[in-house]
């Protein structure tokens, strides 16, 4: 899902449809909002360093303003996968 809040909606809809999460549908969110670990099931999510993302965005914006010849850049910043019960790892057997 786009973020953990949307993933919560997916979890609810899947439950309403009688789907077994994670056996029939794996759900992953993004943000690692504090309540993610309390969802039913607890949500696997990608935690991002929002402060670092903001700093990089500001740095690039300043470069763009100061340098008329600045070329756009693609920057990848690492995230952290936090595995919880809304997904199944390869090690777990699905029956």
Beta-strand fraction estimate: 5-15%
SSE class: alpha+beta
How many β-strand runs? 3
Read across the widest sheet, the strand sequence of neighbours is 1-2-3
Shape: elongated
The secondary-structure element order is HEEHE
Head-to-tail CA distance between termini: 25 Å
Q: Mean pLDDT, nearest integer?
A: 92
Largest sheet: 3 strands, mixed
**Helical content band:** 25-40%
Counting structural domains, the number is 1
What is the rounded Rg? 18 Å
Ranges where pLDDT stays below 50 over 5 or more residues in a row are none
Query: How large is the count of helical segments?
Result: 2
Question: In brief, what are we looking at here?
Answer:
By secondary structure, the chain is of the alpha+beta class. 32% of the residues lie in helices and 13% in strands. The protein has one domain.
Structure description:
The protein has 95 residues and is α+β, with helices and mostly antiparallel strands. The chain has one domain. 32% of the residues lie in helices and 13% in strands. It contains two helices and three strands. The protein has helices at residues 4-16, 50-66; strands at residues 28-30, 44-48, 79-82. Strands 1-2-3 form a three-stranded mixed sheet. The longest helix has 17 residues, at 50-66. The radius of gyration is 18 Å and the shape is elongated. It starts with a helix and ends in a 13-residue tail after the last strand. The mean pLDDT is 92.
């Amino acid at each position: 899902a786009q973020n953990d809040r949307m993933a919560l909606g997916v979890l609810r809809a899947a439950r309403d449809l009688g789907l077994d999460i994670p056996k029939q549908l794996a759900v992953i969110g993004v943000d690692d909002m504090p309540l993610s670990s309390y969802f039913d099931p607890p949500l696997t999510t990608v935690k991002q360093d929002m402060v670092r993302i903001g700093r990089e965005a500001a740095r690039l914006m300043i470069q763009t303003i100061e340098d008329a010849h600045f070329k756009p850049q693609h920057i990848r910043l690492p995230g952290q996968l936090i595995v919880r019960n809304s997904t199944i790892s390869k090690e777990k057997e699905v029956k």
